[in-house]
Input
Amino acid sequence: MLLAFKEAIKDYTTPTNKTLSRDLTAKISSYVSFLIECRPLSISMGNAIRFLKSRIAKLPHALSESEAKTSLQSDIDRFINEKIVLADKVIVSHAITKVRDNDVLLTYGSSTVVEMILDYAHELGRNFRVVVVDSRPKLEGQGLLRRLVAKGINCTYTHINAISYIMHEVTRVLLGASSILSNGTVYSRVGTASVAMVAHAFGVPVLVCCEAYKFHERVQLDSICANELGDPDVILKIPGKAEDHLKNWADSANLQLLNLTYDATPPDYVSMIITDYGMLPPTSVPVIVREYRKEQLWI
Output
């Protein structure tokens, strides 16, 4: 999304009798409206858009159009490099200290930063096994499983319904996150809360890896008050099963199919959050939010 905005700024020309900051902000808002029509924005996308709009609003009026556009493109590149690329590398450097020989590491779905941690641990010669837990309808874990096995990492694959069966073998749980809310709630792919709760019941530490740009000042106590609804038809399609008892479900006024994209994991079930600011407990999340306010990434 940021790269698309960078191209849009590159092609932008200020109309006659208009100022760049106001007109470009309006153009960005129209692009955002189009994105929202296609799919609701993730929290991290919203934060990045606020960052970009704040940079546009603070452009000095003395700058020429070409200088202003160059400055904005440079700001976007710096955000990508510092808040995303380098942030992931810092998270990996922190998390690798928690991976030891003979560990059994469980992860759910497919998280880029978690995969980077596992790859780096394997490169360092750590002896460990990965349990990849997956769930329908997206089955994101299958792609992660293929990549890990291709690199020679010892893996076990299971669906989320077997989580309580496999958890007694696990020494640590590594999870990704779509966002961390200001009360410490982890907002992530649906099913994450179930994994964390089962791990907590077994006394297994739950480590959540999340870049600081995904933190948000919002408070959310459940998954219903705000969520993204996926296509209800995809939960009907079961690979290898031809018979479909719910084929004409839309014709029934008494039946609704609910396909939630995210869920909210209470902070009580999270042992530690690993960010580019360091490793901290969920109770310290408001500190990260305040730090981001100081950097004026949010307005």
The chain has a mean pLDDT of 87.
